[in-house]
Write a structure and sequence with these properties.
By secondary structure, the chain is an alpha+beta fold. The chain has ten helices and four strands, in the order H-H-H-H-E-E-H-H-H-H-E-E-H-H. It has a single domain, classed as Up-down Bundle (Outer membrane efflux proteins (OEP)), CATH 1.20.1600.
Length: 506
């Protein structure tokens, strides 16, 4: 009863805490508005003709559907990347650090309690008779009353920062996955280039043998033989050169999956895996070369160009990890403005101590040895030479930077999508022309070979025609590799996954 009476002076303080406990100095959170269009400018009609527009809303970041690429070994490599990539582990650790800061800030909302135990011996007036020993054991507590929302604003800022770190983690994962897919696709194209060159070398060896036979019959010269051998050795050198590209790509894949290049070997496609489809650009023109050529089966090994579905442009604000991270950093900066505002107001704390104190250890736990104290403290800023004002100005400037960064991130995201859509559209037109060039070069090479056998064409004409065919075929493969790379970048630019709308890009 006596303790309750002693606490009565604190009732006004507690009432004041309850009255102002709901106050918050965090300014209203506003971000730049984006009036997204109903479709992408570079998308091929009628790709998005019936796509509904909707306001963007925060949602879980989807997984990128890399399975649309015809790469049977990709799932295993993606799993190894997830578990062993160093850059991904670094981003995960940064997120864990940001998440821990939430708990640290949340702890400030609750009283801090500490225990104390000690023995002190003191002497007064320099005489032994005045020497006394004091034994004590106590609990002390300190609790800052969050009148102005400073602590809650700090928690909000840390929560937003943690979500930004989570989006950063998703962005790093998406970028690494895209890099892995690009490297694997490029490696497969290099392997097809090697197969093409091996087939070309076989053709040139047969042509050299034909030239040697014609020399024996006196219808060809040594110059013809030298030209044929030069062409053969040049193709062999190009075939060997592809080994450098393949080795470098395999080493890059090894690092992505967290292994030393010396210990890594690219896994072979599983038995019974579906064969890679024969499409250089989806038309099938190159996949059906003229009869009698050894190059016909080369293009059966080319990875197919997938169809990349599109959704409404407004959903880009939901799915891009970098946009999500920029938005959450703007929210964190907005909350920090509230923290800076609260610094202008007094800080109210409630402290208390209770325990036992006695000069005799045997009396330490008795009722007369008890003691306690409780009371509020109010600390108000009076003069700081403009420190708090400058801190508030800094917080506002950081918020302005974060909103500008958010706006720029959104604009750059739309630019990246439009860039890849235009790249796919233009390269599709170029591929049609290149297909026709390959077809014409193949017909020219076959006819020139026949004319050479009949003695109505020179060896130089054969060499020129063969070189033109090889150049056209390698250009077609390089073009297809660029289209595959653009498709990978488009998926990453779209933020990874997408709803099952069924619309396609390009």
């Amino acid at each position: 009863m006596q303790i309750r009476r002693s606490l009565r002076p604190l009732l006004p303080i507690l009432g004041l805490s309850l009255a102002f406990g709901g106050c918050s100095l965090i300014p209203p959170y506003l971000l730049p508005k984006f009036d997204t269009s109903s479709d992408y400018h570079e998308a091929v009609a009628p790709v998005q003709a019936d796509l509904p527009w909707k306001v963007a809303a925060t949602q879980a970041l989807p997984q990128a559907p890399w399975q649309i690429f015809d790469l049977p070994e990709l799932p295993e490599l993606l799993g190894r990347l997830e578990s062993a990539n160093a850059s991904l582990a670094l981003s995960q650790a940064r997120y864990n650090q940001a998440a821990a800061l939430i708990d640290q800030a949340t702890a400030g909302l609750f009283p801090a309690v500490s225990g104390n135990a000690g023995v002190t011996r003191a002497r007064n007036n320099g005489t032994t008779s005045n020497t006394a020993t004091t034994n004590s054991i106590s609990l002390s507590s300190n609790w800052e009353i969050d009148l102005w929302g400073r602590l809650r604003a700090t928690v909000d800022a840390n929560e937003a920062s943690a979500k930004a770190s989570a989006a950063d983690l998703a962005g790093v994962r998406l970028a690494l996955q895209a890099q892995l897919v690009q490297s694997l696709l490029s490696l497969r194209i290099v392997e097809v280039q090697r197969n093409l060159l091996d087939a070309t070398v076989a053709d040139y060896e047969r042509y050299l043998q034909l030239t040697n036979d014609r020399i024996r019959f006196g219808v060809a010269s040594r110059a013809d033989q030298a030209q044929a051998e030069t062409q053969l050795r040049s193709a062999q050198a190009q075939a060997v050169e592809t080994g450098v590209q393949r080795a470098q790509l395999e080493h890059a894949i090894a690092v992505l999956v967290g292994e030393l290049p010396a210990n890594f070997k690219l896994p072979a496609p599983p038995a019974g895996a579906p064969a890679l489809r024969a499409q250089l650009r989806g038309s099938g023109d190159v996949a059906q070369p003229g009869s009698g050529t050894t190059h016909a089966s080369i293009f059966d090994l080319v990875p197919a160009l997938p169809t990349v579905p599109l959704s409404a442009p407004s959903t880009l604000l939901e799915r891009r990890p970098d946009i999500a991270a920029a938005e959450r950093r703007a929210a964190a900066a907005n909350a920090q403005v509230g923290v800076a505002r609260a610094a202008f107001f007094p800080v109210l704390s409630l402290t208390g101590t209770a325990g036992q104190r006695s000069t005799a250890l045997s009396d330490l736990l008795t009722a007369p040895a008890r003691f306690w104290s409780i009371g509020p403290s109010l600390v108000a800023p009076l003069f700081d030479a403009g420190l708090r004002s400058s801190q508030k100005a800094q917080a506002v400037a950081v918020w302005e930077q974060s909103t500008a960064s958010y706006r720029q991130t959104v604009l750059a995201a739309f630019q990246e999508v439009e860039d890849q859509l235009s790249t796919l559209r233009i390269l599709a037109d170029e591929a049609k022309i290149q297909d026709a060039a390959v077809k014409a070069a193949r017909v020219s090479a076959e006819l020139t070979q026949a004319q050479y056998r009949a003695g109505v064409a020179s060896s130089l004409q054969v060499i020129v025609a063969n070189s033109a065919l090889l150049t056209a075929e390698r250009s077609a493969l390089d073009l297809h590799n660029r289209r595959l790379s653009a498709a990978v970048v488009l998926i990453r630019a779209l933020g990874g996954g997408w709803p099952g709308t069924g619309e396609a890009a390009g």
